Amino acid sequence: MKYLRRILFALSSLKVAIILLFLIAIASAIGTSLPQGELAETYIDKYQVHKFLGLIDGQMLIQMQFDHVYSSIWFLGLLGWLSISLLVCSWRRQWPTLKKAMAWIDYKDPKQIQKLAISQTFRIDKQSNSIDNLESYLITSGWKVNKKSLRLAARQGLIGRVGPPLVHFGLIILIIGATFGVLEGVRVERFLVPGRSLNLLSPNGSNQINLNLTDFLIERGPNGQPEQFRSSIELSDKDFNKIFSKQISVNHPLRFRGMTVYQADWALAAITIQINKQQKLQLPLKKIEALGDEVWGVLVPKLDNTNEAMLLTVSSEKGPIRFYSESGIPIGVARPQGGVIQNGESEISVINIIPSSGILLKYDPGVPIVYIGFAISLIGSIFSVVSTKQLWVIAEKESNLLHIGGSANRNSIGFARQFPLIVKAASRN
């Protein structure tokens, strides 16, 4: 029993809760700074030389589950620990405080009132009239009154006591919703070129929604850097009956049937070239990280004896396209829509560059639960601001003295300003 009390005390400790919140904040920062859900090889290659925080390489990062922080065992353990801490704190502290506040406290000795921070004693003519007048005034002012013979107890703002346990309950619901969303949610990221579609399947494998990308635009600033991406999409049901069309962009997603469609990224998918004004080739582009963050390229094989293999590189859908020989010697520069270079006896024209839109789809069944938990916590926070005021009155029959005193858990200055009005109502004949 002794050890159980120590465990409960440790779980409900404010220091423990603060430490847990601090650790969860650090973990969230790590999850935000690191890409989540990538292949293991991606982390190993990326952090083999340039270690994360200068200490953690790719292999260690995977072992520490930093590649999926929010679904890792240790992060879910922190959330569970915090939930238990909030639950135990509510059970050991908040709930007894609420029960105590709901019970009427009956002061029978005037000395009990005189010890209060806000109190006053004065002489009256008739005890019953003073108590009745005060009761009527308090009820009109929104107080709950418990009257007895020559005694009176009143309280106002009891809902303020409900606030703290309500906040704890809301936070627990929020954590449950977030955990449920991480474990049961689905996250899909695909690159689509205009005209291509993506079939979204239900858990039983039947086709439910078809997402078709009709157009994709990249808005660039004066310096050529991308500033906004816009994708025009169409959503169709399983029979391919059109539901509606909408344009999404960064920070302006589409929400539909519990699913959220984000504009997440962009890339260059393919380049179309023409050889000697006859043969057209559409070649897939691949990202070349060794040349920069936004550089794509493709190796054009040797087509005949009159030319040699070439490397094409490009960093924008508007060009320019740079051509290099097998030995890395620049051959020429061209732009889409008819730009031409000469490679040996071959004439190569650039027809177009096809960009692709990075579409991120998220299905999070925990979102409604998270919203409910947040709403409960918000309501509890508002209730917590309400000041709970208590008032006691005792009339002494022999000496014709009336003792009035009260207290407030918040805004004591406001209650002190209200107190003279209460005394005036009691002294009225």
First and last CA, distance: 59 Å
Please count the beta strands (DSSP E, at least 2 residues each).
Answer: 20
Largest sheet: 6 strands, antiparallel
The number of helical runs is: 10
Structural class: alpha+beta
Global morphology: elongated
- Domain count: the total is 4
Estimate the strand proportion: 25-35%
Mean pLDDT: 83
Name some characteristics of this structure.
five-stranded antiparallel β-sheet; single chain; 4 domains; 429 residues; TATA-Binding Protein; six-stranded antiparallel β-sheet
Summarize the structure.
The protein is an alpha+beta fold. The chain has helices at 2-11, 14-33, 40-46, 58-63, 73-102, 110-114, 127-140, 159-184, 367-385, 412-427; strands at 118-123, 144-148, 151-156, 186-192, 197-201, 207-220, 226-236, 242-249, 254-256, 259-275, 279-284, 286-287, 296-300, 310-314, 321-325, 330-334, 339-343, 346-363, 389-396, 401-408.
Describe it:
- The protein has about 425 residues and is an alpha+beta fold.
- The chain is about 35% helix and about 35% strand.
- It folds into four domains: about 1-95, no CATH class; about 105-155 and about 385-425, 2-Layer Sandwich (TATA-Binding Protein), CATH 3.30.310; about 185-265 and about 360-370, no CATH class; about 270-355, no CATH class.
- It contains ten helices and 20 strands.
- Strands 4, 9, 10, 11, 17 and 18 form a six-stranded antiparallel β-sheet that branches. A five-stranded antiparallel β-sheet has the order 1-20-19-3-2. Strands 12-13-14-15-16 form a five-stranded antiparallel β-sheet, with no helix packed on it.
- Helix 2 (about 15-35) runs antiparallel to helix 5, helix 5 packs antiparallel against helix 8 (about 160-185) and helix 8 packs antiparallel against helix 9.
- The relative contact order is 0.15.
- The mean pLDDT is about 85.
